[in-house]
Structures
1.
Amino acid sequence: MLKNMLKATVFATTLALATGAVSMPAFAEVVFNRGNSADPESLDPHKTSTVYEAHILRDLFFGLVMQDQGANLIPGAAESWTVSDDGKVYTFKLRQGATWSDGSPVTAEDFVYSFRRLEDPATGAEYASMLYPIVNAEEVNTGKAKLEDMGVKAVDASTLEVTLKAPTPYFLEMLTHQAAYPVNKAAIEKLGADWIKPGNLVSNGAFTLAEFVPNDHIKLLKNPKFYDAANVKVDVVNYIPTEDRSTAIKRFEAGELDSNDDIPTEQMADLKTKFGDQLRVGAQLGTYYYAMKWDKEPWTNLQLRKAISMAIDRDFIAEKVWQNSMLPSYTMVPPGIEGYTPIAADYADKTQIDREDEAAKILKELGYGPDKPLKMEIRYNTSENHKNTAVAIQEQLKPLGVEVSLVNTDTKTHYGFLEQKGDYDTARVGWIADYKDPETFLGVARKASGNNYSVYNNPKFEEAMDKAAAAGGKPEERMKDMQEAERIVLEDTGFIPILYYSYKNLVSSKLKGFDENVMDVHPTRFISKVE
Amino acid sequence: MFVYVIRRLLTAIPTLFVIVTMAFFLIRIAPGGPFNQERGLSPEIKANLEAQFGLGDPLWLQYVNYLKNLLHGNFGPSYNLPDFTVTELFAKGLPISIQLGFSALALALFVGGILGIVAALNQNKLGDYSVIALATAGSTIPTFVIAPVIQLLFGLTWKLLPIGGWGDGALINKIGPILTLSLPQIAIVARLMRGSMIESLRSNHIRTARALGLSDWSVVVKHALRGAVLPIVSYAGPAAAALLTGSIIVETIFAIPGVGRYFVDAALNRDYTLVMGTVVVIALFTIAFNLIVDILYAFFDPRVRYD
């Protein structure tokens, strides 16, 4: 009898395995193997800053407001919110019944704790400035005020009140950044630095952390306690770091990866032929520019800076150096922000030949020529494409009698040098939007900004920016002021915009909901995979 | 012998100390720091971060603190991967690198050794020339060429192996990296083996053995091999230290979570503690394998004695 039963079981198993090919997909868990250009520095949302970290954290955590598959702002942990008439007080109503992955309720107190933790100097948060618009946030972060003085208050368990220093129209957009995600106080107080480890991490997003093997994978599981779990189609997300772009392409081709967030740009044309629609390239909110040292001779001369900017053939660089994986740029703010039309430099409509003629004329007038060559040094951080861009510019400036020398350093040295405002003529910088507002790009040029590598300082620009800030409650007026600010900063040519960034995703045709958008945001909760 | 080993181990301590000290100060000379990046940090935020890691202290104090922690076996937290301590990173990555490196070395010694013997026994004949040709090719084609070719052929074309990934240690994921790591080593070992074997076969004691009418097998394996293996042993020591501590190229191309990549990444990221960790690990491996080589020498060559 036992023997027969055993036989029957074996038979049934064989049958099940044989038919498995047909019946399995209906029951099998959906696994999404997601190539990500690097491992996160940390999974602590308060200690990260990059785009590839944001992908993972967006799945794990659930901020007050979030982004949908089109990068549009949608309610997150907050179901709704109101803004006071003066634009300074935001009152968030939290989602009823929302819980952390350990089952405890998500309360307004959690956000108070999290916002304070971000600003607490002891946390050492890189992106503490994301919440600087809040009353006393900056003061807390710089040790000038106590944590309790911050303008964030739990009115009751499900009502959070945030008070800002001044009306900040992009505040909600800023809240979509991972720095504003809530963290679990109980877990952090109990476990200390270990709270972030798999098995310990308590989060409130659509997924929970299962494994983190550095340089191998981060495994997330669908969170059944997530309020919208019924609509989350993916059961397992494996974030796989793909530092070697060529390997990533092969792994994608072999089906080991369902998507990857970067490609080797030099293979762009081949990849297009090979993958067709699966290769998605489009404009992203990011600018690639050269910062001219504003206070160093001879670059204090506006005409000279302008001549250099005009002589750079951006079309050539975008097409030949970057294989159209970047787009030519003449503005500080890339297009794609609703309600804002970027202002282009005045020579943008001219042909490249006219620009070069004009540049040559300026240089001649300033007395530069074969006897008195203009010397310029370009600094860039290590990257084949940064090098090729600099070499192209070197070649483009040569006919004008400009002798360009190139200085290549690794990334840490490069930015260390720029930060100390070292002695340089011009340096390569890239800037990707943290939030969808022109402020993120123009703010870089402000006198007080640590990222103002041009040492740019024009009171008129400051004035226009201040005016825009003051017009916080009136979006149209504010955008006009921003445009004025952009016009001034471009006219001054302290920053030479060269290219717009673009996203370069490889997305399997099995994936749905991996929509293209200027922020390159793709929350897994909206993605599904069909076999 | 025992005394000798103890003495060698004791001299390792000052050696390590000098290495650690030099590495500690050299990496600090490099401009920039762990917190310089595309997105600049305000001085206040940077100060907060540096305070958190004790980087605000004077350098000598940081050095003293580092040594203190090191004596307690504490390598500190990684600056650029703050979720992990340096010890944790090595605990996860080192076994993987050791597995791959050891397998590759064993394969290289075995295959390379046999090829070398075959070549030596067929000196200036077809077998010899084939081995030499193979060995020359093997040692001149760089791993960053071999690895993608293996991926392309075995992964994409024939679909026999995965392209990359560790796959929680599945055997099939290890084949590509082990092959890539071992091919150049096979070439080197084969050439070394051929040379020393030819020399050994010409020596007096082999002639005597042959004259005594011993079988070819016995002459080659029992007598010639023992003398011929010495150059291999002295090569294998440092090679093992290098192989077992991982290869950045192989690990990056095959997406293997070993420690090889830390040697370069940590330095580029100015991840001071991780740099120090890798330096200590490599130093330990090198010291250990040099000692092992010396002990093996005594075993293979009766003339070598350590008293």
2.
Amino acid sequence: MPVLLEMREISKVFPGVRALDRVDLSVEQGEIHAICGENGAGKSTLMKVLSGVYPQGSYDGEIRFDGEVLHLKGIRDSEARGIIIIHQELALVPLLSIAENLFLGNEVARGQVINWPETFQRTERLLAKVGLKDAPTTKVEKLGVGKQQLIEIAKALAKDVRLLILDEPTAALQENDSQKLLDLMLELKAQGVTQIIISHKLNEISRVADRITVIRDGATVSTLNRAEITEDRIIRDMVGRDMAHRYPDREPKIGEVLMEVRDWNVWHPDQAGRQVIKRAGFTVRKGEIVGIAGLMGTGRTELAMSLFGRSYGRNISGEVLIGGKPADTSTVARAIDAGLAYVTEDRKALGLVLEEPISRNITLANLAGVAMRGILDKRRETRVAESYRKQMSIRTPGVHQKAVNLSGGNQQKVVLSKWLFTDPQVLILDEPTRGIDVGAKFEIYNIMNQLAEMGKAVVMISSEMPELLGMCDRIYVMNEGRIVGELPRGKASQEAIMALILKDSGKAA
Amino acid sequence: MSDSGVSTGIGTDVRARLGGHLRENGMLLALVAIVVLFVVLCRTVPPQPIDFLSAQNITNLFLQNSYVIIMALGMLLVIVSGHIDLSVGSVAAFTGAVAAALTVKAGLPVWLVIPATLAVGGLIGAAQGYWVAFWRIPSFIVTLAGMLVFRGLTLWLLGGQNIGPFPKTFQGMANGFVPDLFGDLDQAALGLERLNGTAVLVVVAAAMVLIWLGLRARARDTEFGITPEPAGLFWARNIVVSAALVFVGWKLAQFRGLPNVLVILVILTVLYAFVTENTTAGRRIYATGGNEKAAKLSGIRTNRLVFWCFVNMGALAALAGMIVTARLNSATPKAGTGFELDVIAAVFIGGASMAGGSGKIVGVVVGALIMGVMNNGMSILGIGIDYQQVIKGLVLLAAVIFDVYNKNK
């Protein structure tokens, strides 16, 4: 196969940091090339160099595309050559239609006047290519994240793409949407579109990628061929050491029931008559890690948020018992007082005040813990934050750094610190390792085990089944707002979980 | 997600921190520069040289701008919480009219009128805050409506006429001075015709407290492992500020002493600085403006906080309204017109962010002083209201551009 893209000895220096240190990357015509690396390894920086976000002259090294040296001045230059990048944060305008989004900035027009019939025709053709049947006039906000991701790809196809770069395309997708997207990637490959995929999900990479380049600390570690690809090998190259176990060992010391939820019902906040949680009930014991499995959109987050101070839904009914006594969880403050903590799925939007320092984020849910009669003791606050920094090994030059400057894993540790400082009995962790690299995941798992060791009850919601299987003592399976089954550690497997879900869906249908 | 995470973070933060110092010092420097500019212009431009820093003009400066500063303190809280209040000018006018009606028409004593008017202001704030906080109606719209409603109610209450005059005690709020505790003693001793010993003593004490607080904050920064700003910069700033304080005090002492308004102003500024930086309530307001959802999920009752920010704003607008009315010695239908713009401009010049979550009381006071000095200086120079507005607008724009530029750099 001829080489389509050749990046040679790319170095990029930010003030005080060498983000890329002579990275080499070579992508062959027609292949799917995966780039792996921990957060902060330099993957996104490399892609920004390739797409012209960092223009020629702001980095060292050479980019050859189709044998020709590229001098990119900006994104427009790279797009003109057919190098198109789809970012993790989707760049669609929610209130515009699919057709309008597909040709945004690239309108089918005569002069300044848009040719709608042709726009719609082309839109339909593009939608067919990515396997969508929605009307071109549908507003993008009406589509789920999975479909929006496909629209992004269709948008790239509208521009005669030669090299398609997908930055963590499945991060926000549920299992079956992810599968669809991966299928589409393979189909595009068959049509000759060269692709680069950046992903944390090793099973996906090993499914679609022809070759993998692993980057660590801003330098290329290895490029592996299909035959050499194994998850263990990738992980070893990514973190620079062998990871004997992906999940830390734990000797469970399980005590009496700490929290019990009975007959929990929640209705949708806006759509009248739609019941989101139906008669859900579960228990968690002291020192136990309990998982909640289920497909996305099945109501796991809604269950957690409605339990935590009724932060979601309306007409909530049911009973929460903590330590055998009915607990008042009707507002967030009361839920915290009752010993509940909830680590949100979306730490940037819901978990952190990004522009505030780490220390202020850590004390936010328990300001009384660092104040006397409403007056803050900033010394005490700093001491508290410092002790969590050490305990959680939050990697930062100081607790007065803004939270926004931390990597995903360290941000998650800040959120966990915040909740530990409220001294909870029960922690509900919603996708605690989403968007976090392998090394940091392991640290989060360790923290979870320590919490269980301390006698806390931990509820873990996750879309990654291997993670649930590796961490949990017991797993509840949710489907369409109901808890449809419970699997103890010994009996839990991906097949068993899926079987419960499918059986329930079959009943409903 | 896979950006060069922590490491670039350090770089940006160092810059951000320097930027922060740059911002605060920059504003102060701008204030000094503007004062110097007007001193020079007032000396050279008019046919008869005018002393911009005369005791009388300094007194005037505070009397004229006190209400902008007072309202800016409340506006900072509103803006930090992520909202805005466009109604403050109209509310000040309306509450001024209420005070006039109660004092002049109903003949109520001053000690009753002042708390009653503050309560009216608080109620107005509550009425607007209710819709903003609990019904989630955009504050821009609620307070735009309030701006019209209370201007209208002012006209209605005053019947299109001025109400006055006020008893001396009420006027004293705006035009009175703190009596000199030392009487004539010091004047004889120092051989000056008139010198208010209290004023001198107070400013010297204030300067010393300020330096002491600064040193303490520095010591704490070092203890926390925050790199403090360079010592040279710290002392340069403190010497300039202290010298300015003592100079102002000296000048005031030679005129009529400390204006009552200035005392109110200083007490409020210290109080609000303390509340915003050292109390849980203040912290929660910043968190609410910074990320309301995260604050809510941390157990903070963000709606109530926003509501109380508006109540507070209403009460401060009422205080400002009374001071304006006392100063003019009559309530007029046109009072407070355009105040909201000066107040909001002062807050943004002072470094608050439109998005909420950031801004400091000290910055706001400096911002308000910049606006005030420009108003006063341009009026002395006889610059027309047309040019004045153009210049003030450009200064606001420049200050915010400076901010954004610093952040992006």
3.
Amino acid sequence: MLFRDAFKTATRSLAHGKMRSVLTMLGIVIGIASVIILMSIGQSAQNLILSEVEGIGSDLIIVIPGAPASGNFSAPASAQGIIITSLKERDADALRREPSIVAVAPEVRGQAEVVYGNNDESVSYQGVNADFFVARTLGVKEGRVLTKSDIDSGLRVAIIGLDLAQTLFSERVTPIDKTIRLNNMSFRVIGVLDKGGSGPFGVDQGNIVIVPLSVAQKQLLGINYYNDIVVKANSEYDVNFVKSRIAFVLRQNHGIMTADKDDFDIRTQEDILSLLGNITSILTLFLAAIASISLLVGGIGIMNIMLVAVTERTREIGLRKAVGATDTDILEQFLIESILLTLIGGAIGIAVGAGIVGLIYVVLSTFYASLGWAFAFPISAVLLGLLVSTLSGVAFGIYPARQAGKKNPIDALRYE
Amino acid sequence: MIEVRDLKKEYVEDETSTQALCGVSFSIEKGEFVSIMGPSGSGKSTLLHILSFLDRPTGGSYTFSGRSIDDMSDKELAHVRNKDMGFVFQAFNLLSRLSVYANVEIPLLYSDIPPAKRHALIEDAVRAVGLEEKLHTETGRLSGGQKQRVAIARALVTDPNVIFADEPTGNLDSHSGLAVMEILAGLNKKGRTVILVTHETQTAEFAKRIILLKDGLVESDTPVIFDGTKKTQLK
């Protein structure tokens, strides 16, 4: 039997039961649309996160305490909640002496309740030095940044994030020179960060309090080590060269002879992008895997309906066999029908998915413009959708098609 | 053309065996019109199924155009059914949602005949049964007699050597039945072999030879002669 004849026969059969065909396809439509939507959202989220990290600059290098994680995908030990105290002031001082480095900004972090008047908010705070603003290219919308004298004198001053300023203070009140309480200690607000800017790990800086490093270490946390050191490379040097210099200096300071004994991890923007890219890709795949459960349900629906169709059309199968159809001809006919069902369902699912993704984009860009959500409709999702729908047509259609092909023509012709 | 020798067919179900054919022997030459008659359970339908390659015997031999059924694969049997055999069933077995054209086309879908030549063959076959005006009518809208004529057109379209008709008038009124039998007789006159299974004597007498089965055996195999006013089966 020619393929075009098998195709024509299959389309005739599907066209005969239009409503049934449409309802059968529905499971596949929903399944494929779910996969497309989640993959697109995952891609958009990935783009958003990566673009924010890219915004921190390619010359930024972060030194994290603890042995390097194996491979880019693994999170550093410090990010897993393990306290490591290996990065200290003498490391920062040594790095400052390196000509390939223009700024060294050690950081410490903590969580605290911040209170102003009757308003309070749970926030992250960061202890930084003056270089922090150079390294991170952060500015203030109001007031000023921390100066060396603020740090050296241990003044309880604070710079707050833009979102936190809006939470704590009414629009008519300027936060500058107001006193807020952080862990029951008074801090004078000297600046409000301007919009945007992510931390080295994509941390939102809108809801943060930045205080002098010395105050954070001694008065808030009671520690003498750093959570990390952010380094800005001299633009005249290659970032990887600077990375190797940092490693050299720290090994000298820590008395380490070989790289495999390192008690620190150095990550460039490229490393972080790769790590985040891996995490978001896995997350997207995970979401797609969950969505594919609905595809499985849709596929079982196809198999069920095809089995019913084979039973209903037993006499037709008998007739076709009597006039010369082979087992393979009958199998092909039913298989093409199920593939057509899933393929058309898949195409509709892709269109529906694209429509919903577009709608999400319109809603987010209208009501949450500051989020910077971009429309992403990966071609891989379309190809995957078509491939998966075709494969489910084969997978869920083969059993009913084989049942049809194996029917005995005499029994089939006698079937009532 | 057709030669069966000591043909046997035994059905075994739930450890109970039934002997439908107990050793049937006869030959049918090309261009013959043969009726197979017999009471219910005599084995006539079983014989027709074997002769038309829809089933295989469990004993004896069956040779069609010089080839033994035992030497042919299922795929080869399907090919012979398509190329050399046409089928007319009591229940018509038309796809009622399809047009006359599409129903008659079905055997061609499984043939070696290229699509470009099919249209003319379908038109010729439909014309031969006098339904050219109904070519694009859904078969579900036709009368019983018209449906059986479509079934004959479908049997003719591949230009087979043999037409097997299983109770072709069983679901028809006498007028339509007569018309259908006249078409079959006409096809026989043009040289086609027609093998008919029926339990109606009037229908059987359109044939030139009647094989009477009883209890799975040939009870009589006699020619039918025409005496000028009616046909008579010779004992």
4.
Amino acid sequence: MEHDLICIVCPRGCHLHVDENLKVTGNFCPRGEAYGKQEVTNPTRVVTSTVKINGSDLAMCPVKTFSPIPKGKIFDVMASINKVEIDAPVHIGDVIIHDVCGTGVDIVATRDMERI
Amino acid sequence: MKNVDLVIIGGGSAGLAASVGAFDSGIKDILIIERNPFLGGILNQCIHNGFGLSEFKEELTGPEFASRFEKQVEDRKIPYVLNTTVTSITKDKVVTYTNEKEGVVEVQAKAIIMAAGCYERNAGAIGIPGDRPAGVITAGQAQLFLNEYGYMVGKKVFILGSGDIGLIMARRLTLEGAKVLGVAELCAWSNGLNRNMVQCLYDYDIPLYLSHTVTRVIGKGRVEAIEISQVDERMNPIHGTEKRFDVDTLVLSIGLVPNNNLLTDLGVEVGRSRGAAVNQNYETSIEGIFSCGNVLHVHDLVDYVVDEAREAGRSAARYLLEGKKETSKNIPVNPGEGIGYVVPSKLDVLSLKEKTAFKFRVRKPSKNVFIDYIVDGVTVKSTFKPVIIPSEMEVFNLPKNLLENAQQSIVISMRAKE
Amino acid sequence: MKDVVIIGAGAVGSFIARSLSKFKLDVMVLEKENDVGNVTSMSNSAIAHSGYDPVPGTKKAYFNVRGNKMMSQVCEELDVPFEMVGSMTVATEESQLKLLDELNERSALNGVEARILSPEEVKKLEPNINPEVKGALLCPTAGVVNPFLLTCNAMENACDNGVELSLTTEVKGIKRVGDHFVIDTNKGEIESKVVINAAGLYSDEIAKMIEPIEWKINPRKGEYYVLDHYAKGLVNHVLFPLPSEKGKGILVTMTTSGNYLVGPSSEWVDDKDDVSTDTLTLRNVKSQATTLVPSIPFNQQIRVFSGCRATPSTHDFIIEPSKKYDTFINVAGIESPGLVSSPAIGEYVANELVGKVLKLVEKEDYSPRVRKHIRPLELSVEDRNALIKEHPSFGRMVCQCEKVSLGEIEDILSRSVPINTVVAVKKRTRAGFGKCQGGFCQPVVINLLAEHQKVDPTKVLYSKDGSEIVKCKVNKGGN
């Protein structure tokens, strides 16, 4: 099967064509080629969200999956994220959930939030 | 009165990068003035990823990108004040600010960099027809409530405008359990980045209605429904194409506008981007007052903002260290056919560097076109573009030798390939 | 048992309350909305008309002219921005000059200072006027006033002098029992010797509760554009076209805050609560306005709004006791020039109509003044610093566009009229009135109100009941 995709690796948004032999055309850079192959075989996304934080001046601490997770698991990952509650202080890169939903990927904090 | 060499108004991505640019060029006496309780500006509420690919060669979220620049500022020990608002600037560069601790402070600056960002176009500006209930809210405000305060602005949402923040919020609200019923875009094309169309709308089966606008808001207290209609090529609603959506919220993502009050109050010349008219050194029509970032023209990528702001910082440093050049010769830079605006909007041909970056946006998406760079009526350079869209800012560098003899004007223009 | 109950806390009800608060009377004001001045008094042209236009001998003419004369002092006492900038009624066609003369004569009959200007004089005073101008009637005593503060502060002054205000109180029925009235509301029954019906658009419905009436209030909607204050010097007066039977026409005016208003349209509507706007109507407003001022910078538009005038079927204000009871006083049909008339109406209703049925004894401790508003930006740097040292919150700007400090909002929250909504804050402080329309300050104001009312931000209202701004807490951490 052939696929026409828009590359999401960077904001350039190249229009990719992936043929049945997984040959990618239309990409500006090698990352586009990798994305094209991945997207038709096992699409993945980085999920960004927030978790409830106690003891900071804001109610929410932003988090992300450290690397992309399978697209089909986005809502499972969100459900896990929404169960968590953390305490300040927290720093960028701190692991909030280890190996979320068995994806092998950690949920990490993306903002330094001091205790007040 | 306090004396400071360089006052930077705004501690978001532009202000921070400008301070770094100036500091590294030898200016140490700097003051950054930020109205929020933290540095980093609006990046802090942009928790999605996609920032920093060109600046840091990695994909960061907004707060992560902001923290990299905060660190650069902290490392250099560049002074800043938080929770502080600038209320006025004078032509003599007296900056008046106010906060709870210091009261009202007047600072005599030798140079000023305006880096106050932008604000969101809202329902009032476009006069959305119908009732005026609660629940019509800009995408940025919805983002702030959700990402920093932990509140959902609505559960059944429609989005007007396909700007990037609107698309990002379509996904964010969906992930947090809201139902986003659709996005309407007045133009016949999307105004967001392609990648956001894919990962924010297509991934979640959110319909996009191109050439549509909201023709009625219904609801006394809170939004109860909205009606959208198709528009014709002159953007007038077509009678009989109305569709009704029962929603509790209408999120607006209808554009950003430079937050340039302080400079317009001062009588600074304004450019086509609605920010200040600047030359290639980012200097406004008032000597020693510079402008960069979204207060100058609205960028789609923060990576471009910090690049521009650092350069503005370096320019301000040059101005402070070398003093005003005795002579200058400003040639207007005008948007031609198919071009919305160009930054810089004038060129001082006596202070050209080896390369000058021209930033511009086209008015509508086009395929197979040439961009012509025309100096005094003569095309000095043409570039071919297979695809060009308004939502992506174009940057092109022209060498000094093509510009230095300009006498009348420089025009950037789009031309269809024959 | 109350001495007087006033139904309606618009400009008229508020000024009646203020005038009655001078006397030793037990006065209560019932308002169905959650703030005073929330309907017609909030959505109008913000003008203190001179009185050149009403038909001589009418109540409109009398109260307009009297109200205009009172305006300077009232605004000084109530600390309300008011500028007597003068109005010009502009003829753009030769055929209109005759009408201009008639209006000039009418002004003289009404006792209003006026004179006809030549086209050259008009152009000199208004450089942006249509160059085809044929002449204008200048009325120097017309002014622009902050309509929000005029109403709010009149009521605040009344409350400071002992009047009781009950918001979100809707009158369901009125009965005559013995020598007094029993008013049935959503919050229970209230007994009163005298009832004053100042219910604006709904005053016919209230009047009907005690007797059949021959008049009717017909809502007539007007839609407006608001332009930002960065378009400086666009016009220097209130500019009217020649009036027609549909009213004073589409005007272009400055406001006390430096913004410009363009409007209103004039549309009969069925729904008294209809404050919607419509693209075609506004487009028509735009094209009519440009016959007065061709270069209006509509790209400086920051808002559109509409309000309904309480137009009476009698064509004149109705300010009189009901047929059956001299203790039930109707004050109805107060359409334009209602805002400027309201202080005069208040004075007349209190002194003459209430004075006829109740004994008026002046209070010793009555004060006509409200607590001065602190406006830091109008102070010298030294005075501001002294203020901020004592009250730091005056140093923190909440609304960047209109430069409103936290201290000003806190001050509003501490006054005698309760503040329940974001719009209530906006009306009194201008926070959210600027070009970003609350984009930056609304979240701060919501949090302040939540704290003040000791509720969750999801309970904070924008304006009317049911106008919560944020829907719910996000589902996080076991919420």
